[in-house]
Amino acid sequence: MELIDQHTKKIMEGCKDRARDMGLRFQDETLEYIVTNRDLLELSPKVMIPTLYDYWVHDVEVLKEKGKYELYPGNPYETVINTRPAISFYNDNNPDWLNVMIFYHVIGHIDFFQNNLFFRHTWDYDFTGQALSDKRLIARLRAEKGRWVDYVIEFSRGIDNLVGYYDELSAFHLPPATSESKRLDFYFDVFLQSEKKLNTTEYVKEIERYNECLREYGDMGEKTFFGEVEIKYPEFDAVFKKSLEKKSEHRRDLLQYLMEHSDFLNKEENKWMKSVMQVVRKTSLFFQPQIRTKIMNEGWASYWHETLFMNDDRIRGHEVDFARINAGVTSMPRVGLNPYALGMRLFYYLEELGDKGKYSFEFRKVLDEHQREQFDAEAGKGKELIFKVRENFSDFLFINTLADQDFVTKNNLFVVGQRLNEQKMVWEYYVRSRKAEDYRRMLLDALYHPPYIEVNTKKNLGKTLYLVHNFEEKPLVKEFVANTMMGIEYLWGWPVQLETSEVMSISPPKGPQEEYKEPEVKWQRVVYIMENKKLTRKII
Predict the structure, then answer these.
(1) Quick count: other Cβ atoms within 10 Å of Cβ 485?
(2) How is the chain split into domains, by residue range?
(3) pTM, full prediction
(4) pLDDT (tens digit per residue) in 174-223
């Protein structure tokens, strides 16, 4: 592995200049390395971080990828790491025109990493340096503690999807707290909802009254508003002051709770385990935004490599070569999901909405299909709109907002069903639905959505740790429950209980498969109990 030569670096710097002219924003310093195809295979399974701590699963994945490469040699184009400075890796046999395309794709990724708000906690974080320090720490502990280090890593990784990512992220976006802002937050978030239990209509009227006070009285608006509140609710001030006396308890995710409250981990001879757990937790937090923005991230990079490449005079004569490679990357499959293709088309669609003024209430009020097709307010705000979405959205918001019926119809998208042909005894695929609602649900079901599990301190009886799964109609994977809870029991040092929901019954679907409707599912709450490495289950 070595740095790219000066000729190739000059190409990269030219790509950066053209990208900035189009509005992309990123730090100037970047590092580019040349590696072989086999080197790229080793980087990818280790989640693209060559300095990441070693773990047996990584080794298994590397061996698996090498075996696949022997049978089906491929050409992975690039790997880019979100760190400071950004680091990217390229094949050692790329021609210049292909490097131009790949550099634009990488610059798109870097721009996304450094401007999307879901990556806010990584903006000033040199992860490769931190990962190298963590790797050395774990190597030293392995020399002292042996295989127990890998046990702690494995048990911690079993729950590293439960880290408090949004809690961590929210700390970067909180405005400076003042006594007035606390008072206002308490009034609308707690007092009206929990104390007075206002219905939606009354609650909205109260918000409008607050806004009206601000419009009419300016800087004195909030004081005027609370003057009226004291007349309407004379007990408010006393309730608010009482709430300030309560010590606010910062919510801890499961890994943090174990590190702080486990008697086993806080024994002098076991405190080294907390260092390992902290490494696993930090690594998980770093990768959370990448998992939650994969479609947007790849779509944004694909949008820009296509847009910038076709306007670059350095690639004249290679348009056909580009078209062949680009089609392989961004073609939309009829069955399955290609994040590059879907994300890129959503950005193109969003740009069209902005240019024609279709991203507006006026357009949404138009119901006639022909009028919707012909609608063009010539707003010319497409580029401005895609940059705003790039900054503020995650995959969930991106899909939920843009994958509407017009997008589905325009791209001829559909949900695929599967049925058994009893005459030929083969499985057949068929178009189950062309409705945007069904297509959007299929996409949302495919997104990363870890379970929300928290510690219920009120139900912690004796030394038992009581976990509650806040159910969102996505059951836990039963095959993982036993091993995961055994790991938690080891780290906690005492029995563990987990309350969750499981399927009690499923009503059979009615009607032919072509008119398939989701079967009705009835759920029941159950508790899993792990004690002395034995798992039991009981219905609540």
Answers:
(1) 25
(2) 2-116, 129-164+253-289, 179-245, 331-446, 452-539
(3) 0.81
(4) 655 544 578 888 899 889 988 888 888 899 999 999 999 999 888 888 88
